[in-house]
Each structure stands twice: as structure tokens, then as C-alpha cells.
Write a structure and sequence with these properties.
Helix content is 30%, strand content 27%. It has 456 residues and is of the alpha+beta class. The protein folds into two domains: 350 residues, DD-peptidase/beta-lactamase superfamily (Beta-lactamase); 89 residues, Pab87 octamerisation domain (Lipocalin), CATH 2.40.128.210. The two termini are 37 Å apart.
């Protein structure tokens, strides 16, 4: 394998540009690793649109839920010191009042999202309030947090280990646990035990450190019409542990390199580091295959290899960090707008594997196929037309005639990325199959009584 070829760089740059345009994303930064070394780093677009400041590999962004592996690493450090066991009930340390008396929620359950407690929306409440100025459920102090969570006993859906439920509130508890057992505030603990030893000197949880940095993102909220509105990043102690770290792709690369090199005894022993990467809880399979969760890391199939991965979003920033241990490759990706896909880091990983992302990453291959299908189709003399568009991860068709118009999603009949047959659903007729046929000159859409054509 090459380190990262000029052709691969060009392909990634093209995919990143197209993905950002489609998502109306202001800025993105990426860093690619091989064998512990950064082989490509780049910023795309703007860290601040209004001031026309470029995104760089050193720009600080909110990493959202990528924070969770740092919290689990801190917990495992305390386990290594003999001050805690992953099997310890959380209620032995903190005033947690929900769960089953005969099967209490343990540290393991919180780190692996196997507590049986579904999402309680704590992160949503705080993000909406801090970044959007909306929502007034009282959730400001630790007392508010425990009151809110302990009143949710009726929401518990399963006994521990029975089901996977992603629980941000569980990581708030883990952060409070780290503080109680260590006697240090979370920022101080992470700076002393993780950030400092790894040379992550600008990485932080704190507003004042972030806002004083000369290369920090402006956060953007995406409105329903696609416009990006400048806002502020959410800072609150109750969401520090679930998703509060701010970092750059360069500094995250130091963190990923520690894993790719098999650990660092000054950070955590090899056996406990491996325990973080074991698949402790099964999650629903995804387009790549088997999918599980370890301690603060997802563990999933990716193009024939095991990928340790986590994504993150604060609503106004997005993140992806992942690495493939047996190939020694990894990607750090950050953006200053939230909730928009992993196409850029998935493409980067495929390129690091010397694979073609446009044919080998299933949904990217599907989107390439859909590019040929999108456009305006017309019947004879334009009496009836159908506009086919990709909206997000869905293909939609809008039928138009002098009698009106109707928009419906086109649902592929199979998982084949090249599938050209789709279901459409009507309120009276149920589902109906429509399909496309392509040749060198045109693409034809077969819909009910109609054959509609689009030149290629």
C-alpha cells in the first residue's frame, strides 16, 4: 500500500467538496493516519463563513459523542488503579434511583449502553437551550439531573444486558463518577491523565479555553430550508462527559495513534485497552454488516475488516474518529455543523485501504448510480412529467401534470447499490413497482401506464 497517493487525495477532495455542497456544510477538517503517522491533513471550506476564515487541520471543533471513548478510558484508568470495578453498581457511588434492585445498573452497563434505559433526551434538552435558546425543562444542576433521571423509572424498558439503548445520561453519570472517585474535575482529570501525556494541549471541555483559541470554529445550525445560521457551541457540565470535548483533527490523531500502536503503558495497560474495543453489546447491523458497541467505541465490520469507530454531533458540530487495527489506518474528521453523514471519513478509510469508495462503499455506490437516475422525465409531448431528485439519503419523485402534482419517496426493492427498481406507495393502491432502464442515449422511467424519458 502507498502512504496516500496523489490520485487518492484528488478523489477524497472531490468527494468532500461534493458532500459539503450537498449538505450546505461550512467547514470540514480531516486527518488520515497510517502506522501512527499522519499521511494527509486538510481543511475544506470555512471555520467562519462571515469572516471568510478557512478551516484548517488545527481548527478546534466540538467532537460530540466521540468524547465517550475518552470518558471510558478515564474510567478504565481508575479501574487499573484498583479504585473501581466495571461490575460495581453505579448506585454504590452516585444517587441513582432507577433500575432493578436484584440486577442494578453497573459501570459496565453504562459504558456499553446496555443499562436497559432508553434515551431520556438530556443532551437534546441542553443543546436546544444552550445553542438555540429553546426549551425550558429544568436541567441545570446535578440535583436537577438526578431528579429528572430518577423520575424516569417507568421508562426502563429492559433488564441490563438485554437490549442496546444509546444513553447520553449514562455518560453524564460516568463523568460524575470519574470526578467523585478521582477527586478532580473532569477537565483537570483529562488534562492530567490523557490530554497532557498525548500532547493534546489545545483540546478542552471549557468555553474560556476554546473561545481564546486563535483557530476555533464558529458553530452553525442548519435550518429546515438548508441555510446555515451562526450560533454558539453548547457548554454545560452535564454534557461534558457525553459529548463536550473540543479538539482538532491533528490532536485527535495523537489519540488514535495511541490505539493503533497497541496502547501506551503511561496511559492504560494493553489488556484494559483491548477490553474497551471488545464488542460488549450487539447493535442492529448496518449497511456494512455486523455492528456492536464496546466501551465508548463502536465495533463494526467495514469492507472486510473490523473498524473501531465513533461519530458525534452537538447539533452545531459533527465528528468521526475511527481506526482499523489490523491495517494500521485511521481517520479523524470534524465539521462545524451537525447531523450530516459520514461519507467523507468512510471514503477516506476506503482510500487508505486502496479501495475505490465510489464502488466499494455501498451507499456511495448507490448515490453514484442515483446520479444517473435523477432529472426530469417526460412523456410524449410533455403531457406528464416526473422530477426525480435525491434528498438526503432518499430518492424522491414528483409527478406533474395539468391536473396537479404529487411527491413520493422511491424505496429500492433490494439492497443492491445498482438497483433500478423501486416501490412507491399510494394511499389507496398500496405499493406499486416503478423501474428505470438505461442505455447509451437515454434513461426511461416506467410508471403505471407511462413511459417517461430523460436524455443522458
Amino acid at each position: 500500500m502507498s502512504k496516500f497517493s496523489d490520485e487518492a487525495r484528488s478523489t477524497l477532495d472531490s468527494i468532500a467538496s461534493g458532500a459539503m455542497e450537498k449538505a450546505h456544510a461550512p467547514g470540514v477538517s480531516v486527518a488520515l493516519l497510517r502506522d501512527g503517522e499522519i499521511v494527509y491533513r486538510r481543511g475544506y471550506g470555512s471555520r467562519d463563513v462571515e469572516r471568510s476564515l478557512p478551516a484548517t487541520p488545527d481548527t478546534l471543533y466540538g467532537i460530540g459523542s466521540c468524547t465517550k471513548s475518552f470518558i471510558c478510558l478515564a474510567v478504565m484508568q481508575i479501574v487499573e488503579e484498583g479504585k473501581l470495578e466495571v461490575s460495581d453498581p453505579v448506585r454504590d457511588y452516585l444517587p441513582l434511583g432507577i433500575g432493578f434492585d436484584d440486577s442494578p445498573i453497573t459501570v459496565h452497563h453504562l459504558m456499553s449502553h446496555s443499562s436497559g434505559v432508553p434515551s431520556l433526551g438530556t443532551a437534546n434538552i441542553l443543546i436546544e437551550r444552550m445553542s438555540l435558546g429553546e426549551g425550558w425543562i429544568p436541567l441545570t444542576s446535578e440535583s436537577d439531573f438526578y431528579g429528572y433521571m430518577n423520575a424516569a423509572g417507568g421508562e426502563v424498558d429492559a433488564r441490563p444486558r438485554e437490549k442496546y439503548f444509546y444513553l447520553n445520561a449514562g455518560f453524564t453519570l460516568l463523568g460524575l463518577l470519574v470526578e467523585k472517585v478521582s477527586g478532580l474535575e473532569l477537565e483537570e482529570y483529562l488534562r492530567k491523565r490523557v490530554f497532557g501525556p498525548l500532547g493534546m494541549d489545545r483540546t478542552t471541555l471549557l468555553r474560556e479555553r476554546f473561545e481564546s483559541d486563535v483557530d476555533a470554529m464558529t458553530a452553525y445550525w442548519k435550518e429546515p430550508d438548508g441555510r446555515q445560521r451562526a450560533t454558539v457551541h453548547p457548554f454545560h457540565p452535564l454534557i461534558y462527559a457525553p459529548g463536550g470535548i473540543l479538539s482538532s483533527v491533528v490532536e485527535l490523531s495523537s489519540y488514535l495513534s495511541m490505539y493503533l500502536q497497541g496502547g501506551d503503558e503511561a496511559i492504560l495497560g494493553e489488556d484494559l485497552l483491548k477490553e474497551m474495543l471488545k464488542p460488549h453489546t450487539r447493535r442492529p447491523d448496518n449497511v456494512f454488516g455486523r455492528n456492536s458497541y464496546g466501551y465508548g467505541w463502536g465495533v463494526m465490520d467495514f469492507l472486510g475488516h473490523e473498524l473501531a469507530v465513533h461519530t458525534g454531533s452537538t447539533g452545531v458540530s459533527a465528528a468521526f474518529q475511527g481506526f482499523i487495527p489490523d491495517l494500521g489506518v485511521g481517520v479523524a474528521y470534524l465539521s462545524n455543523t451537525g447531523y450530516w453523514g459520514s461519507s467523507i471519513p468512510h471514503a477516506a478509510l476506503a482510500l487508505l485501504m486502496d479501495r475505490n469508495p465510489l464502488s466499494d462503499v455501498p451507499y456511495l455506490a448507490q448515490w453514484e448510480h442515483w446520479k444517473r437516475l435523477t432529472g426530469t422525465y417526460s412523456s410524449y409531448r410533455g403531457v406528464f412529467k416526473v422530477e426525480v431528485e435525491q434528498k438526503g439519503a432518499t430518492l424522491v419523485g414528483t409527478a406533474k401534470s395539468g391536473l396537479g402534482e404529487q411527491t413520493v419517496p422511491l424505496i429500492p426493492v433490494s439492497d443492491d447499490p445498482g438497483c433500478s427498481e423501486f416501490w412507491v406507495y399510494g394511499s389507496e393502491t398500496g405499493r406499486m413497482k416503478v423501474w428505470f432502464e438505461l442505455d447509451e442515449e437515454e434513461c426511461r422511467l416506467y410508471y403505471e401506464r407511462w413511459v417517461l424519458r430523460k436524455p443522458l
